[in-house]
Specification:
Layout lengths: L12 E7 L3 E8 L5 E8 L9 H8 L3 H26 L6 E8 L1 H7 L21 E3 H4 L8 E4 L9 H10 L8 E5 L3 E7 L4 E7 L19 E7 L3 E5 L8 E2 L1 H13 L24 E4 L2 E7 L2 E4 H25 L8 E5 H6 L2 H6 L11 E5 L1 H11 L1 H13 E3 L8 H9 L9
Helix pairs in contact: 5-10, 5-11, 7-12, 10-11
Length: 428
């Protein structure tokens, strides 16, 4: 039977899911042509149970019913995305034969209804880290009743299948170039290496990059300041365009701190100047006190406090420590790095220059700092379309050495050494 343009009769499809703690992305792929039919993202339905994996794990500790609640929430979100994809494309569930799913270790445990509580306590032992394949009907995913769900493996308890997918998409361990791949978020996952040798670790950065525990912090949604430029005035980029600023999200936070360093209103230690310190500075009128804490006014009702700067310092310090320790193990310096790859949704919006100024990433030339977008989703699509590439993903845990930061004798010294902001003259 002939297939008319736009008619999906006779075609077969698969779906690639990147199940993030906050956001879930689904891409419906035509398995014959290798083209994406449609892609949609939405908030993970587990959000009411907590904003981070520890909160979700804590809820799961309430018993099997709580784990089932979490499983139903994430599967329900996936099915909602599938329903919208089907409606938009005209594809039927019976035409969708496979799903490749990536995410952090906690998300995959909860997707499969597995108790994740061992992940919250030493020695952080997951129930599984290897790739799994199960029938879709076992979890209630809305594809062909005899279709399969395939997960990718993890590298460690806190370096999950999403990072394996990112490594697959970026080819970090396939080339001779020395690169560091960083997924910046509440948990900063880092892979450093090349085809010769590669290391991975996880650095607990905390929620600052998500806008949490920041006085005027908010998620990256309409009204959030996402970019800051300081000169003789304050120029802001606000999500939604011509709308009032309501708060500041992670990328705006990094920008604001970097700009305050550049204009001399923050010193190397992270101490914010007071108006009395710099009475002749063109931005002195933006310096203020909020409940006895120094702050910088960004917009009406939106300001950055000294405590916010400290939160960012600890977050960036944790990730920078992870990178430093991996570089020390490999015996390489920042001059040896060919590229710094920023993955994840946050990495896509992060200003590379600002990341360099605050010391989140090594001081390489800015043109070597590259945002690679949703590399986890890209890796999931690659694995969905190619059994050969899927096998490459399966083998990555045997090619990448996992380094556990907790308990390392050099962690504290390394952390202290990168906690301050770099001297501007040292970063080029």
């Amino acid at each position: 039977m002939a297939v008319e343009p736009g008619d999906t009769t006779g075609e077969c499809y698969g779906v690639a899911f990147d199940v993030g703690t906050t956001t879930l992305v689904g891409t419906l792929m035509n398995l014959r042509t290798g083209m994406a039919a449609s892609v949609l993202s939405t908030l993970n339905g587990q959000a009411p149970f907590g904003a981070d994996v520890i909160s979700r794990i804590s809820h799961g500790m309430n018993g099997p019913e709580a784990i089932q609640e979490l499983q139903q929430a994430v599967v329900g979100t996936m099915n909602s995305v599938l329903g919208d994809l089907y409606q938009e494309t005209g594809v039927r569930p019976e035409q969708t034969y496979e799903a490749v799913v990536v995410g952090n270790v906690t998300m995959l445990h909860l997707l499969l209804g597995v108790d994740p509580s061992p992940l919250s306590m030493s020695p952080f032992t997951p129930a599984f880290m290897n790739e799994l394949v199960i029938e879709a009907r076992e979890v209630g995913l809305g594809i062909h009743p005899h279709g399969y769900v395939q997960t990718l493996p993890a590298l460690g308890a806190y370096v999950g299948a999403d990072i394996v997918a990112g490594v697959l998409a970026t080819g970090v361990v396939r080339e001779d170039r020395l690169r560091v791949f960083v997924d910046v978020g509440t948990n900063g996952e880092i892979v450093l290496g090349s085809a010769q040798r590669a290391l991975a670790t996880a650095a607990p950065a905390g929620p600052a990059f998500e806008g949490s525990q920041i006085k005027c912090g908010m998620r990256a949604t309409i009204g959030a300041i996402e970019g800051v430029q300081l000169s003789e005035r304050v120029d802001l980029q606000v999500i939604g365009g011509d709308v009032p600023a309501e708060g500041i999200c992670g990328s705006g936070l990094v920008d604001a701190v970097a700009q305050l360093l550049l204009v001399g209103l923050l010193d190397h230690s992270g101490r914010m100047r007071s108006r009395a310190d710099v009475p002749d500075h063109p931005l002195a009128d933006h310096l203020m006190d909020v409940d006895g804490v120094r702050a910088f006014l960004l917009a009406d009702g939106v300001y950055l406090t000294q405590r916010d700067v400290r939160e960012l310092q600890f977050a960036k310090g944790s990730i920078a420590t992870g990178i430093k320790i991996l570089m020390d193990i490999l015996g390489v310096r920042h001059e040896d790095l060919d590229q710094v790859l920023l993955g994840g949704s946050f990495g896509s919006y992060l200003n590379p220059e600002s990341a360099k100024i605050i010391g989140l990433v090594p001081p390489v030339d800015v043109d070597r700092i590259i945002a690679v977008g949703n590399s986890a989703g890209e890796g999931a699509k690659i694995a969905l379309l190619s059994y050969r590439e899927r096998q490459v993903a399966f083998e990555l845990p045997s090619r990448i050495e996992y380094v556990e930061l907790s308990g390392r004798s050099d962690f504290n010294d390394s952390f202290i050494s990168v906690l301050a902001f770099p001297q501007l003259e040292t970063i080029g």
